């Protein structure tokens, strides 16, 4: 009568995974500070080992796993650096593609100078209400309290300043 091995054939990779996967994931978690990334890199480490034609006879399996995982981390960092450099270069090229012409640039400067001149010519309370409203996003009720006027007066001030700005931007005669 022959004896049948109920444990099945030897599975060195299965044994390596069973004995060291949790340890490797913990080591990676400490190194990376992220449990999800650690799980991904531990998985990738064992995938790389599975891709080997044969599993080497390992005297120090944890040292082997750490070396393999470290190489994966280095490869990942290299890819990330290349990707960042590519994205930065792409962003610069896109910015150059959408750069304004010298005429557009000068037109924008002229418009801004016109608005500055207009704001300087506005009464102090109108100018202040407009600047607080648009630049500092101060609520109208607070502007009214600061200026000692009603909220409806603040609305009129802002409307007056906006109308003046609109006339500068679109070249309309001042009201």
Walk me through what this model shows:
The chain has 175 residues and is mainly α. It folds into two domains: 86 residues, no CATH class; 69 residues, Arc Repressor Mutant, subunit A. It is built from seven helices and no strands. The N terminus is likely disordered.
List the helices and strands and how they pair.
Blueprint: H1 12-32, H2 35-50, H3 61-97, H4 102-121, H5 124-135, H6 140-147, H7 151-170
- Quantity of strands, as a count: 0
Count of helical regions: 7
Largest sheet: none
Distance between the termini: 112 Å
> What proportion of the residues form beta strands (DSSP E)?
under 5%
Poorly predicted ranges: 1-5
Order of helices and strands: HHHHHHH
- The general outline is elongated
Q: Helical proportion?
A: over 70%
Oligomer: single chain
Structural class computed from helices and strand pairing: mainly alpha
Mean pLDDT across all amino acids? 83
Radius of gyration: 34 Å
Count up the domains.
2
Summarize the structure.
The chain has 175 residues and is mainly α. Helices cover 77% and strands 0% of the residues.
